[in-house]
Amino acid sequence: MEVILNQDVKSLGKKGQKVTVAEGYARNFLFPRKLAVEVSAQAMTELKNREAANQHRIDTDIANAKAAAAKLDGKTIRVTAKAGANGRLFGSITSKEAATEIEKQFGVAIDKRKVVLADIKQFGSYECEVKLYQGISAKLTVVVGE
């Protein structure tokens, strides 16, 4: 019997996959637990629509990431901080502060976990990488001043 999996099933397959199983296994285990549905024209159409929607979402995410990368690549963000003697900062500039400044200065909302930034504890200019999507990133310069 052929079924389409609604969830990942250990040693059988991943969600959305079409697999062949014994009829008893399907009727007694998979169907009552709503882990799978029987292959039918309607089920196949729903599966194709789900896959198309997922692909469309991925395509739009990639397009948005490329647009943001083009907007940010090679730009400079300025961060102000208080410092003591010898230009040493009170605390440090974190990726959260960099993400906030990117949003303020360029209008691109970025999660702080996507900003790769070395520990900044002094005034100066530092390189920063923003990972926008898998394989898409932008390089920025962070200038720390008073």
Order of helices and strands: EEHEHEEHEEEE
- Helix-strand category: alpha+beta
Can you give the mean pLDDT? 90
CATH class of the largest domain: Alpha Beta
* CATH fold label of the largest domain: Ribosomal Protein L9, domain 2
Question: What profile does the largest beta sheet have?
Answer: 4 strands, mixed
**Which percent band covers the strand fraction?**
25-35%
**Shape field:** elongated
Going by CATH, the homologous superfamily of the largest domain would be Ribosomal protein L9, C-terminal domain
Distance between the termini: 70 Å
Number of helices: 3
The appropriate CATH architecture of the largest domain is Roll
The proportion of residues forming helix, as a percent range, comes to 25-40%
In the sheet with the most strands, the strands line up as 4-9-8-6
What are its keywords?
Ribosomal Protein L9, domain 2, 2 domains, 3-stranded antiparallel β-sheet, 36% helix, alpha+beta, 146 residues, elongated, Ribosomal Protein L9, domain 1, 9 strands
What report would you give on this structure?
With 146 residues, the chain is of the alpha+beta class. The protein has two domains: 2-64, Ribosomal protein L9, N-terminal domain (Ribosomal Protein L9, domain 1, 3-Layer(aba) Sandwich); 66-145, Ribosomal Protein L9, domain 2 (Roll), CATH 3.10.430.100. The chain contains three helices and nine strands; from the N terminus they run ββαβαββαββββ. It has helices spanning 23-30, 41-72, 95-106, and strands spanning 2-5, 18-20, 36-38, 76-80, 88-93, 115-117, 120-122, 124-133, 136-145. The strands form three sheets. It has a four-stranded mixed β-sheet. Strands 2-1-3 form a three-stranded antiparallel β-sheet, covered by helices on one side. The longest helix has 32 residues, at 41-72. 16% of the residues are buried. The mean pLDDT is 90.
